[in-house]
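Table S5 (text form). Sequence records supplied for joint modeling of the two-component complex.
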Amino acid sequence: MAEVDDSRKPMFAGLSDVSISADIPVEGEINVPVGTPSQDDEYSTLDEPVKDTILRDLTAVGKKFVHVMYPKKSSALLRDWDLWGPLLLCVTLALMLQGNSVDSKEEGGPQFAEVFVIIWFGSVIITLNSKLLGGTISFFQSLCVLGYCIMPLTVAMVVCRLVLLGGSGTVSFIIRLVVVTASFSWSTFASTAFLVDSQPPNRKALVVYPVFLFYFVIGWMVLTFSPSA
Amino acid sequence: MSSSDGNKNTNTEPWGGFDDNMIQGTGSAVIDMENMDDTSGSSFEDMGEIHQRMKEEEEVAAEAEATEEETGEDGEFLGMKGIKGQLGRQVADEVWQAGKRQASKAFNLYANIDILRPYFDVEPMQVRNRLIESMIPIRMINFPQKIAGELYGPMMLVFTLVAILLHGMKTSGTVIREGTLMGTAIGTCFGYWLGVSSFIYFLAYLCNAQITMLQMLSLLGYGLFGHCVVLFVTYNVHFHSLFYILWLVIGGLSTLRMVAALISRTVGQTPRLILCGTLAALHMLFLLYLHFAYHKIVEGLLDTLEGPNMPPIQRVARDLPVVATAAVNAVNVTVKSIGVMLHSQ
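The corresponding structure-token record, covering 574 residues in total, follows.
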């Protein structure tokens, strides 16, 4: 040990010599790289009309909707995530589930806050769970995927409301059951297709179970919704 | 402190500081820092303006103290003080601190995830086997039984129970005016799981049982599997006898399994009785509570607390005529029928 220490001491002594003494002012040139003007124009969004900006974002959201509908192309939803689409879907679903219960205080329908909390809290739980199981997906990517995959259920909600306009008998219940079941399996399938690739192969079932539970609860809420007359 | 620094800078021209400071030889460490402050401060333009205004205000007051503080300053100066001395810097510093706090919080979250990860290290087959085992009590008392310290299964079971409870509340038409059904269900399930685990762990500590908190959480969590099954069945199939049978068989089996595991890890008759009696009673009663009384208690409480505030006397007074008319009607009907019978005879 002593030998090793001896051999190391000169090394450290040499290192201390390298440090710049305080008397010498630190000098240097700072170059601001001047980009080519064409490049600047390309990436500058400051002077474009607001309409273009909004349209571009909406197009991006719309493209992701299409990706959820055809879950085969699985990389785009993960690559550039955003939370606008999930927020839009979540608010739409919550507003439609709210129904007429604002007017009648006795209604036990799902409140706006409840739906909102279920969706976001549930997504966060699923994401944390997938992180804990050793998934390699980032937090917001997972939130984005789970949020976008609510879309089939939102569509089912629209259909259910339309069906309920016609009347609420056994036939309408059967139609709603079929629609909700289909959209529930669609949601689960789509989100699984996006999420499972980032998980260790032997644990896919453990990741899918909470996703299944999440969409099941939402689907069940959609199915049992009935506007108070 | 701040005034002295501000003063030092304003005495020179905003950009004239270099020459003065460069001349002073030995204090170069100080002066270099200050030059850096000026140049980098000017890049925050609005902050620089505020800073300038503040300095002008402070200038008069600060000038008198400048000399004596400057002498003390060189000794104290360690880089940070010069930065904090200016308002713009202070604001920037606060922003930086807040950002740093946020970042460290986020980092801590991720660090905690890494800490928790070993407890979620399971295979689907293991989870399935443990779910089945949670229904099979083992009669092995002399040797401590193995309890897996794992949290994936318990967490998922608790969330499943939350979903089942939500379903039960909805179908039973529970109305909770303050707060959501979701919050109540989550509170109940997590409260039971964490609360009872901690309580039993505390008791086990008193009774000198060989069990860790993690094992306790896992044991009780898997014990909730029976609850999930029973409640899922009985919220959909409304037979009281079926519920009692399931309560005794499935709930009893999962309770027995936990009790057996606890007994094997405790020494002595009295500690075993206390620990297992408490756990069994709590676990079985919780199932009973969730099935029957839960939504009714919540509803009843809320009705009494904030329902239609009608004094009981008024309610009696309103109810009495109904009863009276009903009784009168009944009497009338019986009298009439007797009359009819007599008449026909």
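Note: DSSP finds ten helices and no strands in chain A.
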